[in-house]
Write the structure tokens for this entry.
Amino acid sequence: MANAQSELVLLPEMPFYPWIAATKPFATEKWEAAVEAHSSWLKRMSDLAPALVLSSRPVAQRRNEGFIWDEESGYRPVHDKYYLPDEAGFWEATWYARGDLDFSVAQAGAARMGFAICTEIWFTEHARAYARQGIHLLACPRATERSTVDKWIAGGRAAAVMAGAFCLSSNRSGEGSGLDWGGNAWIIDPDGQVLGLTSREDPFITLDLNLEQAEAAKSTYPRYVSE
């Protein structure tokens, strides 16, 4: 990433500890270990400077908190995950509480951006609302399995079109916590074209994005259609 001189880096959902929601019941010591691991890694964000860093992490209040980190302002919490699955491998509602129903726009450098953490990408009314707020980037850090990759890419394409924005996603990869993670991070343009996908052979992608393309997309179909 340093070699690519990235201006923005998106990491997967809660990336700095094994996936805590793989099993239940809730365990206080495991949650606290995950919080501490993420706090420790946040001290190393300067290793990625001057890039902005986007991801999510567990916090003491038992939330999954989306954040932006940059060299000038440091850590900024911007969105708590609201939509929480609760099923085998993904006992998220068991492990932490939903945040407020707040899908506000955040500023990330020159870009206006919104968060859709993993499952939230399927609640497409928020992508449409983000379009009305004029976002350029829709960030989707996620933790999803290999068996569902095609479905998730389809969801990312739809979200990009509805938001009229570049949809960026980063995912866990390989095997861990008893799950086969899907990888396949993506960059998708405002009209749903997949510009890049990662793989186990090519785990990183870096592209130059023209924010004016997202600006222009807001006045084209289907974004201009009145509700």
User: Anything to note?
Assistant: The mean pLDDT is 96.
